[in-house]
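Extended Data, panel c. Modelled sequence:
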Amino acid sequence: MPDDARFDPTERSEYELTRSANIIVPMSPLRKARICGALALLGSLAAPLVATLPAAVREANFSGPPAATPLGVAAVALAGTVAAGGAGLGLLALQRRLARGPEPSGDAVWSFLAVEDALTGIGFVTGGLGVGVGLALLASGHWGVEALAGLRRNGVEPYLSVSTVPVTPRLVTAVALAAGLAVLGASVVVDRE
């Protein structure tokens, strides 16, 4: 028979009860922040992915070094990286505030839950999709020139150079390393408090 004493609602605060019944992703803000940090860190693969493209793809699509070419899809990966990193830092700030107390009560409970859910959505959805789609399109050249031709027939140009938005895969990698390591490092600090 399970130990029912640990589920006694009288021992849980109003915030804990409301959170357990209404939160969308049932993980602690600290764990969510670490996932966001990992997503942001994943964006650091942008430059290595384009730097290792096959020679035929590089010759057909780039006039200079691929990692230093401003690409539209790199901007997508950068947006995802920034979203995941920012959401991770926001979730860590929320966790730190909750750990330092006092626990929210009344209407403040709903405000905290709304902030947590919003940051989770930004980190997981915007960050995850931005990083995932951006990296997948940056890596599409590894499938060969024929695969790129197929993408172009369907209206997708993964290596479209956009000079108005000077976002290079190298920049995405640098920002991703900084954001991901900042979130993961801060999560260790918050966890030890």
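The radius of gyration is 21 Å. This feature is highlighted in the accompanying rendering.
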